[in-house]
Amino acid sequence: MKIMVMLPRQLPVTVLVMLVQVWDRSLAQSFDPTMPTNLTVDTGISEDIKILLLRLHNDYRRDERLAGDMNRLDWSTALSQEAGRWVKGCDFKHQNNPQWGENLYRSNFKTTPESTVDNALIAWHLEQYNIMPSPTGFIDCCSENKTTCCHYTQMVWASTEFLGCAINECALLKGETTEEDLPDAIFLACYYYPPGNVLSQQPFQRTSSGQCSLCSATNPDCDNGLCYFETSRC
């Protein structure tokens, strides 16, 4: 299942983004994003691109001014390696893996990795405009029956703590049908842990008490509106 996202006119790029998974909370989550991995995949992610991905994601998360429990995202090499293994297959679909969330992006416009990342995150974040106004702020556009903002909600899912991404250039990126195959395409995948878009849950806790007012005991510190754990504390 796919949705088309219209980008601003100044972005000369052909984009197709697929729906992220919607999780049942009962699904097992045994993946450890902090553990070393035996994978040695070329993820296409330089140190500068890693910093850019983290900065843009965390900036978008800080923009949720009513969120009191938004965690800061940190990089996971293990997630990045898993994403790298997936994009190397040049098959534009989601893994059937309940251990992490996925946002996918593809483009047949040859550009820099920096532009690819920027365009992808713009496309995903624009899905917030698919949210219908609600007096309570309830977000109901990512569920089993409605999936028009699932990339956006995964980006701002408060309990997610780790991010890992990969980029690959595909001579032919396979779609669901041959008509949807895309030649000379760029394939970007970002993985998130713990995964967002959990059924019956909201992306974050809304509060009038301010950002970081609802940080968990495991992430009690505040980094400019985002909850985290200060590792240097005694």
TrEMBL record:
CDD domains: CAP_euk (cd05380). Residues 47-200 form the SCP domain. Keywords: Signal. Residues 1-28 form the signal peptide. InterPro entries: CAP_dom, CAP_sf, CRISP-related, V5_allergen-like. SMART domains: SCP. Gene3D superfamilies: CAP. The keyword Signal applies. Pfam families: CAP. PANTHER family: CYSTEINE-RICH SECRETORY PROTEIN-RELATED. This is GLIPR1-like protein 1.
